[in-house]
């Protein structure tokens, strides 16, 4: 699986799509960064296909395989296409089995380059993020140590960092539960100021969202300058600009702003760039990668994180709002198995045997689970765009079930339903899906945003939770205070990023299928001032996973020839 | 300073030295990794020149400038030469002004590539190191949580990690004093087991020393497997092999084992590889880089960390002992200013004005400081090799002083003394030095190791501190116990790595010039089982620097054109 005889030099792939060598920065023979000087804002010609899914289940829906497979399908039918995906994190690679390269005949190669360091972007984000953390703690220490002498000795103003309002944790690109809650500066003295701190996994850094939303290096520099690291003792934000560290952070991320070009198992070009989560951030690959793709190909297939209530919603209300990049079609990925799992009748756990009913033909069970699909179709149509259903086929799927699903989806307003056989057959297995999507993309459609900038943050919250089917949103007292403070501080115009579970359309993972008559409790609001959105927390969001009892790293090694084994 | 019109494509530089494109993995146009399949153990043809210095002072001796300049000087006189240097850490780059690229007309270009991410090696080490830390804490947590059920549920043996004997800290490549002493797993529960921990800067990781000493990927895999992460409750080592994480760590470092080829401002090839400290590790660039250099060029110039009591001593007793790579000549770098500073008559602090006497011609003062040079000449000759003195020239140097220094050095047994004008004149300014060194290299010499493998660790300690001029070494009770345990555990055959201050020949930074009648107290012993040496601590060694009040990051930014400014 690690490499393939069909792999072509990346320069050849790029050349075929009009990316000449002057715009290509090679990293070995199979990867290259693309120089941003290639981008011509007027040159966009392609159609963007946004791949989302039904509510995800432990069975997996195959969204990445379908994304990669569909991009191959377009090329199979003679329509030049580039896929844009997010960079995988090392956490899952070494934690649970499975990278993020797709699979079968629809994967990004060489898989080990994608799943490990790629061209260093995540490491650069880790370094930039932790530089700001070190700078903040150092300033805290020196001001604490020198007191009134600080300004005299340094010529710098006192920042008066409020030790109880330090908002910038540290990051590491591993699943490391012991770092969730830590004390730093233990013992005090020359070893800093003792305080409570913690680590997130790097993908959760605001810098990751910034990388994904930046238009160019200058824009990224300004966004990094706006990042709020802490509050001072007067409650005023201490930004990276105010700490004078934003320039150095940008310098560390200067190469990371260039997307990485790789290829699929069928030599379709893939741009890999940024990897923000779809709960505490907007869950989509970068604006820059999309722009390059739309300029160099007729179609770009990109994948949004989790179900349509998560990454797809955030694509529209955050990424489209900021960039104006407009999809022409939404593809919702489903499997018959995961639709049945969405019925809510089973308690399915990863790694445990599946209930027999799920693998057997059972139209009644499917019909129940299809309600979830119906909700996601309606949710996508809310934004004014046509919706296509891609059924990621399993050998056990029955004709009767597939026919039911087709009729149901059409009755919900889907433009069409097509089987994707990407895993087994690559682009040949998605040719019909690509034909369907390309026809659908021809319809001229405008995107309807869910809310304008200028309504209150509370109205934005109510608008969003109403789409989930909630009766209302309830704010804790803390959340209400924070909302008022954010509007007072001038952040009221920003779009919302609801940080909730992906495992239910609601904010409660126990509410399966299409929940009704529930409320959504918002416990807190936080601003991502550089990325440009307000995070509304509806439940606890894990931003530092842990390693399980049988972690994947145990099986990863080099063999006698020095080749990597055990990565998948 | 950032780039130069004279920069040539790295492929062209490589080609000129017989490294054809099949062995080259490009990272853009100015850097490439070299594939290890190039190495032919029989093909070594070059002479190795080891650059060391007198006892370092806050004034700086210009060892890197001289190393780079001398490599240019060899090429200037028509003798093909490659320089091998260590990779800089981000800590100093953002902390104090000054990267590690050399300077003036003797520097590695592009300087910002060298000083920032290079080709990702340090990031890979950070990731591999912290994966082991996460794995260890996760295992501690799961065994603690499940108790007797652990083996039943997982099929794995209990490791019974002793929480009071966890030897593997975490690492980050920044100066971050707040991370020196931390508590992890705070609060316990699902967030791990609460315990005291800390961070070192990445260069201090044993993995850095392993990278520098490994012969190939297989050797690195075995060394990583031997790394001791903790003791179990019976006092038995828990290695990375036993935790089943050594394979995954190696996979993360699979690209890092390839040295990075860059060029100097005069297009001399430079191999950059690994960056172990010269106190807690052996302080030299990699065995692999040396082998490639000695195979492809007639001369290799490499730099050992700190003075000859540190990196040079460790080159012989550790790196040469393990690899058999033999220098043909030692070059000791000195400046008149730093010799005067070594007299011990001044209290010089970085960033403060120099005493006037140091810049003025003063043969008497120089004569006192020259005793330090005399000791370092004798120290180098101990290993049976010829010694050349390189005087890194300053405009204020007087002819009278230079003549005194020459006579003194020759009287101490130096083979010759030559001025290096590398900063101002590049290779032209070191041509005479290169001529001298090349003549000296023609003498056939054998290296005499300071001690054989099979004497006791205590005898090794005494032998080493005797070279410093100490009356004796004194061991604390703890150190005595550890010594006995290490010998019992089968580590008695390993060479020693004395971790001491570089600012004195003794272990006390206050003892200047050539101290006498002192004792060296060893407070503890630790084994670097993968790197293959025993660390003997003579004083507290800082392995996590801090940021000062006016850190360098404040001046680093991008300009209007997107170019990096403020790096140096």
UniProtKB/TrEMBL annotation, chains A, B:
Reaction it catalyzes: (6S)-5,6,7,8-tetrahydrofolate + formate + ATP = (6R)-10-formyltetrahydrofolate + ADP + phosphate
Enzyme class: ligase
Entry's family note: Belongs to the formate--tetrahydrofolate ligase family.
Protein name: Formate--tetrahydrofolate ligase
Superkingdom in the source lineage: Bacteria
Organism field: Limnobaculum allomyrinae
Pathway: One-carbon metabolism; tetrahydrofolate interconversion
Keyword rRNA-binding annotated: no
Keyword annotations from UniProtKB, A to Z: ATP-binding, Ligase, Nucleotide-binding, One-carbon metabolism
Keyword Cell membrane recorded: no
Residues that coordinate or bind ATP: 57-64
Pfam families documented for this protein: FTHFS
Record gene name: fhs
GO MF annotation, one: formate-tetrahydrofolate ligase activity
PROSITE patterns given in the database record: FTHFS_1, FTHFS_2
EC number per UniProt: 6.3.4.3
């Amino acid at each position: 699986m690690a490499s393939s005889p069909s792999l072509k030099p990346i320069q050849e792939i790029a050349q075929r799509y009009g990316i000449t060598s002057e715009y290509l920065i090679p990293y070995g023979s199979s990867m290259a960064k693309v120089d941003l000087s290639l981008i011509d804002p007027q040159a966009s010609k392609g159609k963007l296909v946004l791949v989302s899914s039904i509510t995800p289940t432990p069975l997996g829906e195959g969204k990445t395989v379908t994304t990669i497979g569909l991009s191959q399908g377009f090329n199979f039918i003679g329509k030049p296409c580039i896929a844009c995906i997010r960079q995988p994190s090392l956490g899952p690679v070494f934690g649970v089995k499975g990278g993020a390269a797709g699979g079968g005949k629809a994967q990004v190669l060489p898989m080990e380059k994608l799943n490990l360091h790629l061209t260093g972007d995540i490491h650069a984000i880790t370094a930039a993020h932790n530089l700001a953390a070190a700078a903040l703690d150092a300033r805290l220490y020196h001001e604490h140590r020198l007191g009134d002498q600080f300004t005299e000795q340094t010529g710098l103003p006192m920042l008066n960092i409020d030790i109880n309002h330090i908002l910038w944790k540290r990051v590491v690109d591993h699943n490391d539960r012991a770092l969730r809650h830590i004390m730093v500066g233990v013992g005090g003295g020359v070893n800093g100021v003792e305080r409570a701190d913690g680590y997130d996994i790097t993908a959760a850094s605001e810098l990751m969202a910034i990388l994904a939303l930046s238009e160019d290096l200058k824009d990224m520099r300004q966004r990094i300058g706006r990042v709020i690291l802490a509050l001072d003792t007067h409650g005023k934000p201490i930004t990276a600009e105010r700490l004078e560290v934003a320039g150095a952070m940008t310098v560390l991320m200067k190469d990371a702003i260039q997307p990485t070009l790789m290829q699929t198992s069928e030599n379709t070009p893939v741009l890999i760039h940024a990897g923000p989560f779809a709960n505490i951030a907007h869950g989509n690959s970068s604006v820059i990668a999309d722009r390059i793709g739309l300029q160099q190909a007729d179609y770009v297939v990109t994948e949004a994180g989790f179900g349509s209530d998560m990454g797809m919603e955030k694509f529209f209300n955050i990424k489209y709002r900021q960039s104006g990049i407009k999809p022409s079609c939404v593809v919702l990925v489903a499997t018959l198995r995961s639709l049945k799992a969405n019925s809510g009748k089973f308690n399915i756990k990863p790694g445990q045997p599946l209930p027999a009913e799920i693998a057997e033909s059972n139209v009644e069970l499917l019909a129940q689970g299809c309600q979830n699909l119906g909700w996601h179709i309606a949710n996508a149509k809310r934004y004014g765009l046509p919706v296509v259903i891609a059924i990621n086929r399993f050998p056990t799927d029955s004709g009767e079930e597939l026919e039911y699903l087709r009729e149901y989806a059409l009755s919900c307003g889907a433009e069409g339903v097509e089987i994707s056989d990407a895993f087994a057959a690559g682009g040949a297995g998605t040719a019909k899906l690509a034909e369907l999507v390309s026809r659908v993309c021809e319809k001229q459609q405008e995107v309807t945003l869910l809310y304008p900038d200028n309504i209150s943050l509370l109205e934005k919250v109510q608008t969003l939770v109403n789409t989930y089917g909630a009766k209302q949103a309830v704010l804790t007292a803390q959340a209400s205070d924070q909302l008022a403070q954010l509007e007072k501080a001038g952040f009221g115009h920003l779009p919302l990023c609801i940080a909730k579970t992906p495992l239910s359309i609601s904010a409660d993972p126990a509410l399966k299928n299409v929940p009704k008559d529930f409320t959504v409790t918002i416990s807190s609001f936080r601003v991502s001032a550089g990325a440009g959105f307000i995070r509304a927390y509806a439940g606890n969001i894990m931003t530092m996973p842990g390693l399980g009892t049988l972690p994947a790293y145990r099986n990863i090694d080099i063999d006698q020839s020095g080749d990597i084994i055990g990565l998948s």
